Amino acid sequence: MRTKSPGIIPAALAVLSMLAPAAAFSQSAAPFPSKPLRIVVPFAAGGPADITTRTIAPRMTELLGQTIVVDNRAGATGIIGAEIVAKSPPDGYTLLLATASVAAINMVTYSKLPYNTLRDLQPLTPIMTTATMLIVHPSLPAKSLKELVALAKTRPGEISMGSAGTGGTLHLCLEMLMKSANVQMTHVPYKGAAPAITDVVGGQLNGMFVDLPVVAPYVKAGRVRALAVATPKRSPYFPDVPTTSEAGVPNVEMLNYYALLTTAWTPHDVVSKLHDAVVKAVNTPAIHEKLVAAGSDPLTMTPAEFTRFLRADIEKWGKLVKEVGVKMD
Q1: What is the pLDDT of residues 175-193, one digit of tens each?
Q2: How far apart are CA 81 and CA 101, in angstroms?
Q3: Quick check: 148 and 160 in contact, CB under 8 A?
Q4: 3-state secondary structure of 228
């Protein structure tokens, strides 16, 4: 009769003891999401990015079954907030509300950016696109873009124009306008569109380019004057407002977008759950209608489609920024 080696049983027990914790962890790991999520908005509260996030967050909360915290981290044209998400654990619990500035333009205006959109972030889907409008305070003696250009030529550098931050979409619109019209205005950067609009409405700032969703109520109330939209065609929401090209200043176009991304290397199943929740939220009738009523066009893509879109957008802005001559470092 054979006898078992006395070393076999202890060795087997040792292997089992090593596997047991892993098996226990696997069985006890809660399905995603098992705790609150955070959406980092890299701009000031009250601006279009913040409004968009707070419009879809409640529905996403219902769909995912977890609270979603909106975390405003304004500054540096969205870089502060984007870096936070890029350096977060790749578990899907931290998301970024990005604009064209954050996702694409920063990539070509900063040579030492602390994040790379295509390397450090996982695209989920766009939420919407929106036209950009040129507005001025009613006290400014310019009732058209042509009159604004004429005024700027008689007062070089005296007209103050705000933006949501240096190097962002609204700033680039201004740079395109000044280059195309051959005029000089003074750029005043803010930590988001909301405080800049507040100063335009209050008369402390002469004007600015701004996305439709946040400025539409002020235009309709007559608190600011709309001079043009920086789009190839007129906005259906303001059909009486001409395009910049129609108003006599070509080559000034900006179609901004708002989108959600998370940290790179987030598990595929988590990415799928997040993407599904965003798409369902955007397509919820009440939310869809609210986005449209604000002057935006809801838009969703698959993560793969959105990644290809961002790659092409970064290339497009690289060419444009070189033409305009805006470089942040």
Answers
A1: 999 999 999 999 999 988 8
A2: 12
A3: no
A4: strand
Residue 181 to residue 244: CA distance in whole angstroms = 11
- Distance separating alpha carbons of residues 183 and 115, to the nearest angstrom: 34
How many Cβ atoms sit within 10 Å of the Cβ of residue 197? 25
Domain 37-129+257-324, CATH among 3.40.50.12780, 3.40.190.150, 1.10.418.70, 3.30.420.40? 3.40.190.150
Dihedral (CA of 10, 11, 16, 18) sign: positive
> Between β-strands 207-211 and 160-163, what pairing exists: parallel, antiparallel or unpaired?
parallel
Residue type, 193: A
What does the pLDDT look like over 240-274, one tens digit per residue?
A: 999 999 999 998 988 899 999 999 999 999 999 99
| DSSP-derived pairing of the beta strands 94-99 and 160-163 | unpaired
Number of Cβ within a 10 Å radius of residue 89: 10
Q: Are 213 and 130 in contact (CB under 8 A)?
A: yes
> What is the assigned CATH class of domain 131-229?
alpha beta
